[in-house]
Specification:
Its main location: membrane. By secondary structure, the protein is mainly alpha-helical. It has 20 helices and two strands. The protein has a single domain, classed as MFS general substrate transporter like domains (Growth Hormone, Chain: A). Strands 1-2 form a two-stranded antiparallel ribbon.
């Protein structure tokens, strides 16, 4: 059945913009090490590799499991916390922690300190993404959810773009100062978030939904309705797991498997393409950093936004599988483009193929998160997103570890070979994209022809169409105009019945 596309208020757009900027800082922090390691200099002021003496295999561990182990373990905890606690405070605290990790990385002198910084970064990053996705799912209109998640995903590509530009920044101001810049920007975002945004779940019951009526002078045409009932008690982890399994377990697992495959491809390309270009096109390293940053910022962001918006529009026109078919098409087109980028005869066609890769491959995030939000019970959404994050991060880290072992074995047996590096990235990245396309098509077959049936209690647990208004310099949830009109009409009916 077709859905009507609802308008999103300006206040909600502000919250979405701020969450997107936070995601950008998160991913800039994650990918800092990838581009700082790729700086081709023997000067310890500019090169992280020269200053710390890390090996190729150590780099693979720092980029993959060094970050992801703490990220996924704490992600499970923070996913449950997102179902219970103040998500705005969770995100702000995470920002402060991972900014501290960036500062620790700037002070590192060797592998152990870098490993501690990456583990702390994973701990802080675990606070943000799940809480942000849960918050977006609660406050955005259901029919615009894929588009909203697509906008939020722009932060990933903006952050990756900043990571790419970090290579140029390091060559100008040094790699340590680049880390400090990321840390300072994160602290500023934490202060802004905490000062201007409030948790809607906690404020909605306390903020009186009839405040505008109470402020008006009493009259015979004004009758206040009783306040809404309190929200149901939070679920335990076991109850949340049972709720997910009782709803749509096959669909949730299929979406998670497809997303794990796309994360594997993304991890491999994000972590090893900078190394590949630095090795094959060393004379164009600075140009690659700028062009890659531009391509990620423009093509990646456009793909994320258009993918989400197209999925919403296609689903509204009557195609319930749109959220899964669009990512399948993008992944299918990405595999040959990655191969072309790796084996192009010269720098220009290689970078052109890379830009087209971003334009096709990055359409997955908004539709995927929209589909997952619809498939998960609202009261267990944070727990479900934590499980999704666990599977995706483990898949990505395992792919990076496998490529790192291949490249490390090559370098230990006679020098790093560009051909070996290209082959390892092609097998890992192209294979993951092909698997991703097949898994998304399989997940689409699990969506019924009539779309996503409503989960009992879904409407009660949501704030669809909610308006966010300023109060004491903070944004809170308030009833939308249609809700206020409905309240007034109901009050008039009650008054008429009592008078009769």
């Amino acid at each position: 059945m077709a859905e009507a596309l609802e308008e999103v208020s300006g206040r909600l757009k502000y919250v979405l913009l701020l969450l997107t900027l936070i995601k950008a800082n998160n991913h800039w922090s994650r990918y800092l090490i990838n581009y700082l390691y790729a700086v081709s200099s023997d000067d310890e002021y500019y090169s992280l590799s020269a200053a710390t003496g890390i090996t190729e295999e150590q780099y693979g561990l720092l980029s993959g499991f060094g970050f992801s182990i703490s990220y996924v373990l704490w992600g499970l905890v923070m996913g449950y916390a997102a179902d219970l606690s103040n998500r705005v405070a969770i995100i702000a605290l995470g920002l402060i922690i991972w900014s501290g990790a960036n500062a620790l990385m700037a002070a590192a002198r060797g592998y152990r300190c870098l490993l501690a910084a990456r583990a702390l970064l994973g701990f802080g990053a675990a606070f943000s993404n799940i809480a942000s996705l849960s918050l977006i799912a609660d406050v955005c209109p259901r029919a615009r959810l894929a588009e909203a998640n697509g906008v939020y995903a722009i932060g990933l590509y903006a952050g990756s773009s900043l990571g790419s530009l970090s290579l140029v920044m390091a060559e100008r101001v040094g790699w340590r100062n680049t880390c400090y810049a990321a840390a300072l920007s994160g602290l500023l975002l934490a202060v802004t978030l905490f000062a201007t945004v409030s948790e809607p779940r906690h404020l909605a019951p306390a903020a009186k939904p009839h405040a505008d009526l109470e402020a008006a002078p009493p009259s015979s045409s004004t009758l206040l309705l009783p306040p809404p009932p309190p929200p149901p008690p939070p679920l335990t982890v076991a109850q949340a797991a049972r709720a997910i399994l009782a709803a749509r377990p096959q669909l949730v697992l299929a979406i998670t498997a497809a997303a794990a495959a796309v994360h594997a491809a993304g991890y491999v390309t994000n972590i090893y393409l900078p190394v590949f270009y630095a090795a094959r096109f060393a004379q164009d390293a600075a140009l690659y950093a700028v062009l890659n940053a531009t391509a990620k910022a423009l093509c990646g962001a456009a793909s994320a936004y258009v993918g989400g918006r197209a999925a919403d529009a296609w689903r509204a026109s009557g195609q319930p599988r749109a959220d899964l078919l669009i990512p399948a098409a993008g992944a299918a087109g990405a595999a040959p483009l990655l191969a072309l980028a790796l084996y192009a005869p010269s720098f220009a066609p290689s970078v052109a193929a890379l830009a087209l890769l971003y334009l096709l491959a990055e359409c997955w995030s908004g539709p995927t998160m929209g589909a997952l939000a619809r498939a998960l019970p609202p009261a267990a959404r944070g727990t479900g997103l934590a499980a999704y994050t666990l599977a995706s991060t483990v898949a990505g880290s395992a792919a990076v570890w496998a490529v790192g072992r291949t490249v490390g074995d090559s370098s230990s047996s006679g020098g790093a070979d560009v051909a070996v590096l290209a082959r390892a990235v092609a097998v890992g990245g192209c294979g993951a994209y092909a698997a991703c396309a097949a898994l998304y098509c399989g997940a689409a077959l699990l969506v019924r022809a009539d779309g996503y049936a409503e989960i009992p209690g879904d409407d009660a647990a949501r704030n669809d169409g909610v308006a966010v208004r300023p109060s004491a310099a903070r944004y809170q949830c308030a009833p939308s105009p249609p809700q206020r009109e409905s309240q007034r009409a109901a009050g008039a009916r009650l008054r008429s019945e009592r008078g009769g």
